[in-house]
Amino acid sequence: MPPARKRLRSYDHDTIRAAVLAQFGHVRQAVESLTPEQLALPTRLGDWTVRELSAHIAMTSGLIARYVTLPEPERADVALLDWPFATVTAAGQVDEDTRAFAADQEPAELFARVAARIGELLPAVPADRLVPMRFGGMRLGDFLVTRTVELIVHTDDLNAATGLEIPYDRKALAACTRLLADALAVKAPGASTEVRIPPFAVVQCIEGPRHTRGTPPNVVETDPLTWIRLATGRTGWREAVDAARVSASGERADLGRLLPILG
Fold it and tell me: For the whole prediction, is pTM greater than 0.90?
């Protein structure tokens, strides 16, 4: 793996921990209400049904408890901003693991089991504890930020598949938005274009003349959920612009070639 990428912002561990637990609780409540017919509905994730999607959310959240009970790695190999670019390499294994997990128990039972484990273990573990996640050693604090992405993105997938309105914890939504925005700045470094995702994030990216004062010549602005859908390939750039969910002005304001960020 290349040298760890420099983080662009810090996250308060207690805030992120509370956000992860809150969003997991929102999804658990919704999953417990799903009927067999709803669990069989298709999703926008290939041939996964709502059952597989629900199991995936429980599985990826349950990794928190699994990792903190394993021996601590000797070093941190993976920085927070490495994670968005590493996920695509594990897509096949994640699919296989999800299907096996979905076959293990009913989704409501999976969520109850995971809730008990992370509720018991997570409050006692400090942010700097290293965990042996899929791509190498990583700080627990950073790993929890990645769980906000998993939870928010897949909450949106569940809402799209079922028609439910599962709430988005504000702090989890903020962390997810910020991490994916910072990943864009890493993918296309520069300062010619300003990307605004109010109220959570502003980043500069793309090589070109540097903006110093006044209104930047190249500006992209959108809301958090649209940004998350763009960054994860749930929505296409042209589709979002044509639907006026994104405003883009300036010759370097077309982000289409840079998206999606998360595979």
Answer: yes
